[in-house]
Design a protein that fits this description.
The chain is mainly β. The chain has two domains: 142 residues, Sandwich (Immunoglobulin-like); 88 residues, Immunoglobulins (Immunoglobulin-like), CATH 2.60.40.10. It contains one helix and 22 strands.
Length: 237
């Protein structure tokens, strides 16, 4: 029985998935990927990740590429960029830097995209087949920042003024906040702070006394929760 990966008579649904999950691997639509985010250290020749197909009958066509600022990037290549992943099999993707990157004092954010398309059998013409595009953060990290990666989230400082809380990141790392509590009240999906950048939240409170936060580590896990006493900027004067 022949398999096909495209047909004009089929309805194809695209699903883009953004991953900020505290899992050591990602399992979605039949394939398993061993990570939710990836770090490329400056001195590494390449990094690799595994893609597993645990299904017993379905073959997937896997396509991968790297983007920066919503455009395909020539800074990295992925090999193999396109391959068939047979049932009950595993393959590795190698991400290789092929262009000089001159940023030495801060991380650079790329996106690694992996698209999976299940094989289409001739006797399933009327079935719905789903294309899944999975997007992962890929951080290029200069050598000078390797030693401070684990503790960078502790350097974040918070200020409160005019009913606005501002987080300041004085480091060269991207810091993705996993949890944020203001006076014990959780802020949903607090976001990511760019290197040497700021992130703000509008909040209406008579007074803000404390802030607690955790972040995502290199493996997608949660760091410890730490706290800071907060004062209105006017109270410091």
């Amino acid at each position: 029985m022949r398999e096909r990966f495209s047909s004009l008579s089929l309805i194809i649904m695209k699903i883009t998935v953004t991953f900020l999950l505290l899992l050591p691997f990602l399992s979605y639509a039949g394939i398993i990927i061993n990570g939710t985010r990836f770090v490329y250290p400056e001195n590494d020749r390449e990094i690799s990740l595994s893609i597993e197909n645990p299904e017993e009958q379905t073959t997937y066509l896997i396509q991968s590429w790297v983007e920066k600022d919503n455009q395909r990037s020539n800074d990295f290549i992925i090999t193999p960029p396109l391959f068939k992943l047979k049932p009950a099999s595993l393959n590795k993707l190698r991400v290789i830097k092929v262009a000089p990157l001159n940023q030495t004092d801060q991380e650079t954010l790329y996106w690694l995209h992996i698209k999976s398309l299940p094989a289409i059998h001739e006797n399933t013409e009327n079935n719905l087949h789903i294309v899944v595009k999975s997007s992962f953060k890929l951080f290029y990290r200069p050598e000078s920042l390797n030693s401070s990666a684990e503790s960078a989230f502790k350097e974040v400082t918070f200020s409160y003024n005019n009913q606005k809380v501002t987080a300041t990141n004085p480091t060269g790392h991207y810091i993705t906040l996993r949890e944020l509590y203001l006076n014990g009240k959780e802020i949903a999906e607090p976001g990511m702070i760019a290197p040497f950048g700021q992130l703000s939240w509008k909040i209406v409170l008579p007074q803000l006394n404390s802030v607690s936060w955790s972040a995502l580590n290199d493996y997608g896990g949660k760091t410890q929760l730490i706290s800071q006493q907060l004062f209105n900027d006017d109270e410091k004067k």
